[in-house]
Amino acid sequence: MDINTDKNNTKELVFNQIEAELKKENFTVVKKDNFRPWGGFFVIDEGQAAVFAAKYFPHLEMDSIKITNKLSPKILVVAPNKRLSWQYHFRRAEIWKIVAGIVGVKTSLTDEEGDVQSLVPGDFIQMDKGERHRLIGLDSWGIVAEIWQHTDPENPSDEEDIVRLQDDFGR
């Protein structure tokens, strides 16, 4: 993605740039949320999951990505110096690829937060179901392609499947 991630850019500008890039790539945005205190996200049409995976995760075989029949492709947008909650999930694993900006990521198999890893565009990280994780905006806007690997085909993960261990916004 060709996005200007300068920390002085407004949220509106960054979201407009991403939306234009997604449109150029012919992705259908089914939900846009730019009201999160840490930034927001774009949900891509599930019918385009294979195309999304091929674009952002070309190094992975679709069979290795697809645990169930749903992938829930998204683009995450994290603002400079903001953090998503320290969290984990019961019904999904997650795959992230940094597409613009530099972000911080913390992961741990316990409730103790690990060290911050700085990830740059092209970097890839995978979190298993139950693995604790946090996405952190560093000194710029961070743009991350995300795929949810639903682990329960009868009960796919959703926004309710977030166990927050710590949250800067009191959620």
Report on the architecture of this protein.
Keywords: Isomerase. Pfam families: MannoseP_isomer (PF01050). Residues 54-166 form the Mannose-6-phosphate isomerase type II C-terminal domain. With 171 residues, the protein is of the alpha+beta class. 15% of the residues lie in helices and 37% in strands. The chain contains three helices and eleven strands. The strands form three sheets. The protein has a six-stranded antiparallel β-sheet with strand order 1-2-3-10-5-8, covered by helices on one side. The protein has a three-stranded antiparallel β-sheet with strand order 7-6-9, with no helix packed on it. It has a two-stranded antiparallel ribbon with strand order 4-11. The radius of gyration is 15 Å and the shape is globular. The chain starts with 10 loop residues before the first helix and ends in a 5-residue tail after the last strand.
